Amino acid sequence: MAVIVFWPLIAAFIATTQRSATPSMRIDFYDQTCPNAEKIIFAEVQKILRRPEFKNKATFEIPRPTDHIDKILRLFAQRGFTARETVALLGGHSIGFISCAFIRDRIDKVDNATDPYIPQDFHDELSRRCQNRNNNVSMMDPEQLSSSSSPLRSRFGTHYYESLTRRRGLLFSDMELMAHEQTAAVVEEYASDDDGSTFRRDFITALVKMSNLVTLTGSQGEVRLNCSVPLNS
Hints:
Cofactor: Ca(2+); heme b
EC number: 1.11.1.7
GO biological process, one term: response to oxidative stress
Enzyme class: oxidoreductase
Keywords: Calcium, Disulfide bond, Heme, Iron, Metal-binding, Oxidoreductase, Peroxidase, Signal
Order of helices and strands: HHHHHEHHEHHHHHH
Strand content: under 5%
């Protein structure tokens, strides 16, 4: 779950800021100095998450796909995030892919009292796309995007929130944003924002705040001359 949440947030942040922020936020900025940057980071994250102590801690502190809104807000609040910032950060689910294994339980449940959000037509669609639980489902809704006259960049995030208002969120935890008066109001605000500027502003602010959590200072960590070569190698 940690990797699923982490990478869409990073990719979304880059996609959101590449035209408006400093040059170092451009996707191709590190092509010359560290062409394998993304591969290195991904490999290191995978290596860490294979260690049981890190995996258990990561999954303990990060909301699960089946969590209810009270737990989601509590976990984010423990890190200093408001309800609005929580809704903004979950907008990172706008892009990327998710394994059908994470939504298979929604498909298998037939009792609407257990999962009251999923409409029958959406249930049938997910069933078709996830006949194999190893399949991946796009977080983006191609039909919704193609029917919109808004530019793709301005649709980052907004289509995710629009999907929630139509009860078509992929994860149960996503749909839980509509179960709380405060978070539902933010979802509605982002969904109705034509150019997506309100969401992008909030997302950038919240993600910068997240990037400052547990930062390494002083003698912690290392500053590399070549980011792909550890200093002690």
